[in-house]
Amino acid sequence: MKLFQKIVIFMLLGIGVGNVINLIFGILYGQFYPGMPLYIQSFDNLNTAVLIQTLVYAILGLLQGLAGKVFQSKLNDNIVIVFVSHYFLIMLPLVLAGYYLKWFSSLTTLILMLITATVVYVLIGIVRYFSVKNSISEINIKLRDNR
Fold first, then answer.
1. Interval 28-73: pLDDT, tens
2. What is the rounded distance in angstroms from the CA atom of residue 103 to the CA atom of residue 95?
3. Cα-based angle 84, 72, 4 (whole degrees, multiple of 5)
4. pTM higher than the cut 0.85
5. For residues 43-69, b (16+ Cβ closer than 10 Å) or e, as one string?
């Protein structure tokens, strides 16, 4: 049951994040589109396009949510391998979804997205590293005090 709940949560997060990003782009460009115009125009029916896009967001959320399991794997002994594996498990579905949903109008757009996503990934990794390091320090202090 816990796995099913996680799957549902990951999928809902994917849908939520995808729609919030759509909304942000709508605000930035001054007009809301339910998806990239080139993607939407490739369908005869707007509802079908949005439904499929929503399913892609759900799958993207699921895959990216499950990517976190790599931190619990046997690879956990080598933090570099874990982070590189996690990075590619995050980026590959993102690039594939972006390609399908026509987020990239050119190679430049793809490269900019990769750079932006990589910077965000690295920043999150740094924050997470210092957070874990701080937690370990606190645990060590408590262990020392209990002796």
1. 888 888 999 999 999 999 999 999 999 999 999 999 999 988 877 7
2. 9
3. 110
4. no
5. eeeeeebbeebbebbbbbbbbbbebee
